[in-house]
Amino acid sequence: MELPISDGLPPRPSAIESNSDSYCRGSERLAQAGDSIEVALICNSFGVVCKYTATFEEGERFYHRALPVIQRVLGPEHAEVAALSHNHGRLGHARGRFAAGQPLARRSVQIRQNLLGPDNVEVAADLATLAVVLDGQGKHDESLSLCHQALEIFERAYGTGKPGVDKANGSQHLKVQICRTYLALLLKIMASRLAERET
After folding, report:
1. All structural domains of the chain with their residue ranges
2. Distance of CA 79 to the CA centre of its chain
3. pLDDT tens across 15-48, in order?
């Protein structure tokens, strides 16, 4: 069964939830299939599905199963380790376990910066993930700085997000707009903190 995807965007939770039972049944069989790299990569994908379906413990199990295999077969600094760390960090964010998600998100940033350089859009996505995890921990200043970095990278790569003007397509514009929206929320939080300090 294929994941429902439309317009190149990630599947919406409601689309996944309608098929979550069959995903989970398939995932149980897969989890017992061995320690090949193929199984590990599929376990990483199932971890993402588990985040969207709020089956967080199962997602944790998939990520913990996949990581040692991916590291052993591909190496600890491989792009797939970064992808898994990114996804696992997002799971920590989704379940409100920000402290657990932070080292995973940082690892993803570090690996991708080493592999791709600091101005790559995949690095920007990792920076945005780290920013939301840090925000959940109340580390708004660092989160704000990382969000600015991510937005700058996205805008250099895709433009400012103005349809018909920039070189980006719809999903790329969406990344720029999401980053801008999150940045605006962070600024609002910081402004209210400053106002509280002054009163």
Report:
1. 11-75, 77-190
2. 14
3. 444 455 555 555 556 656 678 899 999 999 999 9
